[in-house]
Amino acid sequence: MKINARKFSNNEITVTYDPFLCTQSEICARQLSNVFRNSVIPWVDIDGAPTEKIITQIKKCPSGALKFSYKDKVA
Q: pLDDT (tens digit, 9 = 90+) per residue, 26-43?
């Protein structure tokens, strides 16, 4: 059975989550609980904090389960 990584987007970035890589350290939920919530579905609220704070938190993910990419902007 294959489970795809989950994706969450706003106007600036797309956040992906790979449950197979996650070590459940909960650093994301403890340090940025407005975005990474462990008791609500969907568990990522991409509008819960400014994009730069989300990026900073993703970079702290010890397992690499959380990643982000910038969305292409059209002027």
A: 999 999 999 999 888 888
